[in-house]
Automatic annotation (TrEMBL):
It comes from Marinibactrum halimedae. Residues 19-170 form the Phosphoribosyltransferase domain. GO terms for cellular component: cytosol. The lineage of its organism: Bacteria, Pseudomonadati, Pseudomonadota, Gammaproteobacteria, Cellvibrionales. CDD domains: PRTases_typeI (cd06223). Pfam families: Pribosyltran. One of its GO terms (biological process) is GMP salvage. It catalyses: GMP + diphosphate = guanine + 5-phospho-alpha-D-ribose 1-diphosphate; IMP + diphosphate = hypoxanthine + 5-phospho-alpha-D-ribose 1-diphosphate. This is Hypoxanthine-guanine phosphoribosyltransferase. One of its GO terms (molecular function) is hypoxanthine phosphoribosyltransferase activity. NCBIfam families: PRK09162.1 (NF006605). Keywords: Glycosyltransferase, Transferase.
Length: 186
């Protein structure tokens, strides 16, 4: 069996034994609330919404479909876990296309864990001259290891201090497409 095939089998076993945290309906309702809050805060600001690839993709596409005001979409690709379940240093794979100078930027990602990735992206946007940087996270992992001062302005759902996957979040590069959020079984 090649590497990707054995990983696919492992991922299926992980899914079969995982604990469901939130189903699709609960995720959708949480993103409805975030969309309402963003509309109230930024509906007049013509923001740039910035998808953090790859994990942010499903949250981003669901969220923007709920926003009915003028905005632009862009993406940034920063990765720290690289198909592993342990974080390393942040690696940049793609920078945004829009000039962020003077713009209200909204970063949209799947998970705030230790905050290393988010801190690097906020710093990037500020150095690019953004007028404001707001942060949206589908989930916030509950522990006290997050970098001091790094926070999400808008959070959909809280998750326990366990490895989680689904709705964009991967297990070794798989299971991002599952339309619910699970925790790997202990
Ligand atoms: O708060 P942190 O501890 O920095 O972890 C959060 C980051 O980890 C994941 O990205 P990953 O590096 O796995 O890349 P991916 O988006 O391609 O899954 C996730 O999408 C966040 O960007
Ligand atoms: N998929 C996934 N990515 C992460 N990045 C940081 N923490 C996590 C996690 O629990 N799950």
């Amino acid at each position: 069996m090649s590497n990707f095939e054995s990983l696919a089998v492992e991922a299926q076993n992980i899914l079969d034994s995982a604990d469901l945290l939130y189903n699709h309906q609960q995720i959708d309702a949480a993103l409805d609330e975030v969309a309402d809050q963003l509309t109230a805060a930024l509906g007049e600001q013509t923001p740039v919404l910035m998808c953090v690839m790859n994990g942010g993709l499903m949250t981003f596409s669901t969220l923007v479909s709920k926003l009915h005001f003028p905005l632009q979409m862009d993406y940034i690709h920063a990765t720290r876990y690289r198909d592993s379940t342990e974080g390393k240093e942040v690696k940049w794979l793609a920078e945004p296309r829009y000039d962020l100078k003077g713009r209200h930027v909204v970063i949209v990602d799947d998970i705030l864990d230790e905050g290393v990735t988010l801190e690097a992206i906020i710093q990037y946007c500020k150095e690019a001259g953004a007028e404001s940087v707001s942060t949206v996270m589908l989930v916030h992992k509950q522990h006290d290891r997050c970098i001091t001062g790094v926070k999400a302005d808008y959070v959909g759902l809280n998750v326990p201090d366990r490895y989680v996957f689904g709705f964009g979040m991967d297990y070794k590069g798989f299971l991002r497409n599952i339309p619910a959020i699970y925790a790997v079984s202990d």
